[in-house]
Amino acid sequence: MKKVKVGIVGCGNISGIYMQNLSTMFANTEVFACADTVRERAEAAAEKYGIPHVWTTEELLASPEIEIVVNLTTPIGHYEICKSALLHDKHVYVEKPLSLSLEHGEELTRLAREKGLMLGCAPDTFLGAGLQTCRKLIDDGFIGDPVAATAFMLNHGHEGWHPDPEFYYQEGGGPMFDMGPYYLTALVSLLGPVKTVCGMAKKSFPQRTITSAPKFGQTIDVEVPTHVAGTLEFISGPVATMITSFDVWDSTLPRIEIYGSRGTLIVPDPNTFGGPILFKPAGGESFAEIPVLHSHAMNSRGIGVADMAACITSGNIHRANGELANHVLEIMHAFHTSSESKRYAELVTSCERPRPLAPGLIQGIVD
Ligand SMILES: NC(=O)c1ccc[n+]([C@@H]2O[C@H](COP(=O)([O-])OP(=O)(O)OC[C@H]3O[C@@H](n4cnc5c(N)ncnc54)[C@H](O)[C@@H]3O)[C@@H](O)[C@H]2O)c1
């Protein structure tokens, strides 16, 4: 099988799992080069994962050998690097969120379309075994007609473990932009695009104290809302209630539940690739675990990139695509704008539900 050459820009915290999986898990990708403004990080990553080239970002974007650029910089760098990659005629896959502003998200999707290139965006957890099995259960009518859903992500932020946590409290951060993409991408894959959003958002603490190394004791000024609650109406009919928060120490709320006319489906944590999946049928006595039918139950970050690589030859539409990410970006903004305006936000973007994966594929093969 042909291996598509991938260049990774940004060799920080999340990059290791991409480097590992795109080098060893997926049959159709290889990591050919990496770049980081802190060159030692790129050199250490190249050494650890056997990546042949350490280049500057500009060299990597300009290299005729690279077919897909994977942009793993912090949110503030997403737009510029994606745009530059597209202008260098590269397919590009970026960590979430697609960009900071709606204008930039729209510009990137338009540019990719005009140039006939693929723009992909994390998360790709919705392509994992757990969420794909849930997708099949819903598509096969197992839960009946979806009526409603809940999605809850509450914790106390990332300053207790991330070495450079400032970006989580700047524009493009906050619980909605950081963790919302997992929940919203999963919901859109399961239920289709969203029509209307109603949100309320607040900033409970103006400053956060870092308790991780090496910046222990430093404070961060919080620039974005850190508790975001609201309601979503899907075009297909269901209504979902959602909370994302970095202001809560702990909670017993479930991650995602889908309520169907024939029973309740408990969906696995959308920041993971596996199960468990639980279902309780109408009139049933208790929840029972449903076996996971699909492959990629282990940490398969990068499956969205491998899917793009497969689509270079098949001509299919890649699943973790820019239209989906741009719709998710608009939903996230809508929670905040609805809160500010105290009005419902009617969405202007939409997207197709990404094609489901077939059950029982071999690990590392996407189609
Ligand atoms: N850390 C996680 O657990 C995690 C999980 C999922 C997704 N993400 C997402 O991944 C992205 C990166 O997060 P992270 O935690 O790895 O951040 P990080 O700060 O640890 O790493 C980002 C890296 O990008 C480099 N960089 C910034 N601008 C650059 C440029 N112009 N050219 C080259 N390198 C540049 C930085 O030097 C840094 O090494 C974010 O969008 C985040 O939301 C992170």
UniProtKB/TrEMBL annotation:
InterPro entries: Gfo/Idh/MocA-like_OxRdtase_N (IPR000683), Gfo/Idh/MocA_oxidrdct_glycsds (IPR050463), GFO_IDH_MocA-like_dom (IPR055170), NAD(P)-bd_dom_sf (IPR036291). Residues 4-119 form the Gfo/Idh/MocA-like oxidoreductase N-terminal domain. The keyword Oxidoreductase applies. Coiled coil: none annotated. The keyword Oxidoreductase applies. One of its GO terms (molecular function) is oxidoreductase activity. Keywords: Oxidoreductase. Residues 132-265 form the GFO/IDH/MocA-like oxidoreductase domain. This is Oxidoreductase. It comes from Paenibacillus apis.
